[in-house]
Amino acid sequence: MESAEQIAIRDLETKIRDFISHPRRQDPLLQDKPLWNVLCSSLDILGDTELAIESYLALPEGDDVGTRYLLVYGILQVLYVQQDAIEDLVKSFGLAYKSDSALVEIRDARNKTTGHPTKRGNARTSKDGQQTSHFLARYSIRKSSYKLMTSFGGPPKRIPGRRYSGFHRKATGRGEEGPGAGMECAGGERNETS
What is the pTM of this model? Predict the structure, then answer.
């Protein structure tokens, strides 16, 4: 028997659809309409996001920086939505969900990069007084890597940029090999912030 790691998401989606569509299983599931809707929506989203990931992997680097922004923002959002669908699917079966540390890192990168980059935390109301703002260093943007710069509220300080690379490969196990394959995070150029 194959382990879950050996089965592609598409195959898992099909197996789960077949499993829940069996009349003995489907009838009780249909009694709880919200649960049924979560199951169906999660499976649809898994299929949709797999199509998006496959298309992303087939795309060339992009000739202009605007296209590269779309590639980075797009894949991070697709990976985030796919993770949400998987979590909801697992929980709908009454199972505990535990996210892999690499996936947690990708979620954090997505939130800082494209989800909520302009203001994270609140310098006035948070316990630690921490507030950060984030932006991509435009010159660094590539299809599968970028440097994220962070500025902190409060007194000026020098901070390193953080390079994210291979994030799609880390999340999916697919993609190009070579430099940047494997979600490396390295210090980069320092940025004076205020």
Answer: 0.77
